[in-house]
Design brief:
The chain is α+β, with helices and mostly antiparallel strands and about 400 residues long. It folds into 2 domains: about 45-275 and about 300-355, polyphosphate kinase like (2-Layer Sandwich), CATH 3.30.1840.10; about 360-410, no CATH class. It contains 13 helices and 9 strands. It has a 6-stranded mixed beta sheet, sandwiched between helices. Helix 3 (about 70-100) runs antiparallel to helix 4. The chain is elongated.
Length: about 400
């Protein structure tokens, strides 16, 4: 074979090899059977109940109360936020479950719990969490506040002189706005407004020996924590000492002013949470604003979904409340301490900057010149707002200018 022929064969073989390699590379990969996923995605054990998951998040909020990295009044704020969030949870989430029970719905949630089973689980979890929150308040927060000169006292801890001053305060500030309502055969059970604190009062006529039940609503236009103005010499020399008393205890101690001549048998605080979940069909509403106003008004009259009572309340008084509010055992929460610690926000407002986080002052981008038409600015360039570090006021200005601009159609 000539040298040229051998070279041609070599080239031919090389080309054939390259073609085969290209063919193999272009060929689709062999089909390999993937293992069949036999997971039953309807298995309830794979899911966490939605309502209980929300409560677990609130447990994390509660945990911030005991983290020493936060200043004292910021920790107190988290305790108030926890109680406020639980209120919202009952007004919206629990009310939905109660509605399902009333309608006889037996569909289970993804985790397999029936509506009534969810209510039982919620009750068990909330009881545990509220007990923990009350313990944090009495064993952690109160001693820490006392160390800083902030005393939240019970009425029976006060001196006679302090009680006398509070009686004058009661006559001047509280008594004029109180309206006791009786409940008996001739008087229907009074309406208990949402989230209001009330006193269940039992009085007896000393002449006829007739016992009657009355409700006294704690006014929300007066501070829940009544400040005690210092008059003792030792208090005047230590201006950082601030003392407070729960207003419901002040009212309970002065009920003889409301029921003169009557014997006060008992007075116990209680609180009702109502269904405030609004369902608004925007497409069917002729006037959305009026529809919203009506729904907001009706929020005060929603069905009760929770009854909170003082631990010292006798069972027979609690039974009267349960019967007339039409709530069951799993709607009742007995608390060994003050009801609704949401009011601790009042203490966070004290002028104690050393006990709070440094204030955050939001900035405004330099492009947004005050008083300028924001649309003219946006035509020239985009503006990025990073909240909460940037002020939200430019957004409000944008909406206000849009609302009054005749060129804005919708």
């Amino acid at each position: 074979m000539s040298k040229n022929a051998a070279s041609a064969d070599a080239i031919k073989n090389h080309v054939a090899t390259v073609v085969e390699e290209v063919r193999l590379q272009a060929a689709p990969p062999p089909i390999v059977a993937e293992p069949v996923d036999e997971t039953d995605y309807f298995d309830p054990s794979l899911y966490i109940n939605r309502e209980l998951s929300i409560l677990e998040f609130q447990r994390r909020v509660l945990g911030e109360c005991v983290r020493d990295k936060h200043p004292l009044l910021e920790r107190l704020k988290f305790l108030a936020i926890f109680h406020s969030n639980v209120d919202e949870f009952f007004m919206v989430r629990v009310s939905g479950i109660r509605q399902q029970i009333l309608l006889g719905i037996t569909d289970t949630a993804a985790d397999g719990l029936l509506p009534r089973e969810q209510l039982v689980a919620i009750h068990r979890t909330v009881v545990e969490m509220v007990e923990q929150a009350t313990q944090i308040w009495s064993e952690v927060m109160q001693p820490a506040l006392k160390d800083e000169g902030i005393h939240v006292l019970n009425y029976d801890q006060l001196k006679k002189s302090q009680q006398k001053r509070l009686r004058s305060y009661f006559d001047r500030e509280i008594f004029p706005v109180l309206t006791p309502l009786a409940f008996d055969v001739s008087h229907p059970f009074p309406h208990i407004s949402n989230l209001s604190i009330n006193l269940a009062v039992v009085i007896k006529d000393p002449d006829s020996q007739v016992t009657r039940f009355a409700r006294v609503k704690v006014p929300n236009i007066v501070s829940r924590l009544v400040p005690l103005t210092p008059i003792d010499p030792d208090e005047l020399l230590t201006p950082k000492i601030q003392k407070f008393v729960w207003i419901e205890q002040v009212i309970a101690a002065n009920l003889d002013r409301l029921f003169p001549g009557m014997e006060i048998i008992a007075a116990h605080p209680f609180r009702v949470t109502r269904n405030t979940d609004m369902e608004i069909q925007e497409e069917e509403a002729d006037d959305l604003l009026l529809t919203m106003e009506e729904n907001l008004r009706l929020r005060h009259f929603g069905r009760p979904v929770r009854l909170e009572t003082d631990e010292t309340m006798p069972d027979w008084i609690r039974d009267i409340l349960m019967e007339n509010l039409q709530v069951g055992p799993y709607d009742v929460y007995t608390i060994d301490g003050p009801l609704s610690l949401t009011s601790l926000w009042e203490l966070h407002g004290l002028e104690r900057p050393q006990l709070k986080d440094s204030p955050l002052y939001a900035s405004t981008p330099i492009q947004l010149v005050p008083g300028e038409n924001i649309f003219n600015i946006l035509r020239q360039q985009d503006v990025l707002l990073h909240h909460p570090y940037d002020s939200f006021l430019p957004v409000i200005d944008f909406l206000e200018q849009a609302a009054t601009d005749p060129d804005v159609l919708a």
